[in-house]
Specification:
Helix content is 42%, strand content 18%. It has 175 residues and is an alpha/beta fold. The protein has one domain: Rossmann fold (3-Layer(aba) Sandwich). Strand 3 and strand 4 form a beta hairpin. The protein starts with a strand and ends in a 5-residue tail after the last helix.
Length: 175
Amino acid sequence: MKLLSIDEQEFQKRLSRIRLLLLDVDGVLTDGTIFHVPGQGWTRSYSIYDGYGIKLLQKLGIPVGIISGGASEELKERIRYLGIRHAVLGSEDKLASLKQLSAETGVPPDLICFMGDELFDMPALKEAGLAITVPDAMPEVFGISHAVTSRAGGKGAVREVIDRIRQAVSGAGRE
């Protein structure tokens, strides 16, 4: 992970305070590619490593939430499968969605890590206590993010962040 606007000490401090991880979907939880399956419709692929990481973080008592402009059935099924209880779907107002989930969970924005990659993610990235993006994010997003993952969206970027949060919060290594 490459730090963009804070030093390692500040990054570790912010990681250790995270009490809610919020994720954009396309470009973060997926690689942004959609494809059509005859008889089923449009779908995406997800990283099994990200999914397992989400379960590990939840076991530590840190909830994970989704904020997505989409609201497809396959996304809803993925959310159910992972046991994600906090989601705002069909929203391009990511800041309002972050504030909604902050209120819903009782976690203030400065204790939230938000991962986003697109222009409409920028207001939520600015509000979150820890803003992280992926290597193929829109160029403007790098200027407001605290860090960029070494792995691409849909290819383990979420797991990379989760592992860093887990290490900072509990001292746990990879399982």
